Amino acid sequence: MNDPLYVSRPLIPELSDLTALLQGVWASQQVTNEGSLHNQLEVALARHLEVSVAKLTCNGTAALQCALLSLDLPRGGEVITTPLTFAATAHAIMACGLTPVFADVDEVTLTLDPAAVARAITERTVAVIGVHVYGTLCDHVALRDICNAHGLKLVFDAAHAFGATLEETPVGAMGDLSIFSLHASKLYNTFEGGLVTSTDPVDSQRLRLARNFGIENEEVVRSVGINGKMSELNAAIGLLNLQKYEEERAVRSALRTAYDRIVERFPGLTKQIRQVGVKQSEQYYMIRVDPVTFGAGRDKIYTRLKDFQIFSRRYFWPICTDFECYRGQTIYSVHEQPVVEQVKNTVLCLPFHSGVLPHHVEAIDAVLQELSGNN
Ligand code: T4K
Questions:
Q1: Ligand 1 mean position to 181 CA, how many Å?
Q2: Domain 15-242 CATH class label
Q3: Rounded to whole angstroms, how far apart are CA atoms 23 and 350?
Q4: 26, 29, 64, 335: least surrounded by Cβ within 10 Å?
Q5: Tens digits of per-residue pLDDT, 193-219?
Q6: Contact 231 CB / ligand 1 (< 6 Å)
């Protein structure tokens, strides 16, 4: 039996490098609460992502919560987002005492459709969260225009888009705030971790308050906050992985090209869009399967790959409005049937990391050939 091949594989630093870096932490006994490595990593990430503010958190969900808390939005306000995302996006809105409202996705990019957002706006709307899903970037200019016109805050969930750029614009500089997940499943990771970025230095102190219970000093709690802090252990991993990350990204970029060549051969399969002027984060490789034209549905491919110990993922099916907690909520759309209701049954993420070897790619190709032959 082959070793299992998963959709993600964490980038892990050398253990000897990690223990060397942790010597100082052990000596100082400052293991969390804005320790030295944590602060070094914030400086390094701000430089790397070309933003003036980069605030670390203990995970991407906490980053979303800290971002929303830092904006001081009125309780019960509505936040428009996409249902084609990880549960965390909607849950973070709820956890901050706000209400998620779902809008449809664009047919091509699968990111939040600005026209659908415009339909979802009410007098209670306070913010929009766009998700750069699979690393495909939202139309940040159109979303900005809508938000400006209605006085709304704009946040980007860039959990999948670390390091992406659109021409001169780094992803972390889009919107009012952007959040990143640095979870082990992410190309650039700290095992568990998150990050909020901004181009406005004023946000720095608000975000620090939000991730540390709102504590300003020993005597003053300024605002509502959570424990969203990153430990020195995670920061050490982050510093070391920052040195290794571009190498992994280059491997994935080559794998994307190899996958694209295969996918292009099959009518009924659509490869993930390559956006003009975008340097991709290389977080996920997503395909869409049209069961009629291809000859088999997405689930058949998913199941058959498992026979070869290849574990693809149907991210993000089920979508948020299929979850019990959001079921029945409207998906605002400019179409009679929301695009996302059809798309959710067609998306499949293939294993995408440097552990994917030529024989894995051949096995995936063979499965596609076998199933497409079932026409
Ligand atoms: N916004 C968006 C758009 C997100 O996608 C996410 C997280 C967030 C916000 C919230 O960020 P965090 O709070 O999580 O930082 C995984 C991740 O746990 C989650 O971070 C991620 N998105 C989501 C898309 O994927 P699962 O339930 O699919 O994880 P799991 O355990 O099945 O891992 C996926 C594969 O990765 C496994 O098949 C094997 C491999 N793996 C995973 C881990 C944890 C490893 O090889 N080693 C590991 O240690 O959610």
A1: 9
A2: alpha beta
A3: 39
A4: 29
A5: 999 999 999 999 999 999 999 999 999
A6: no
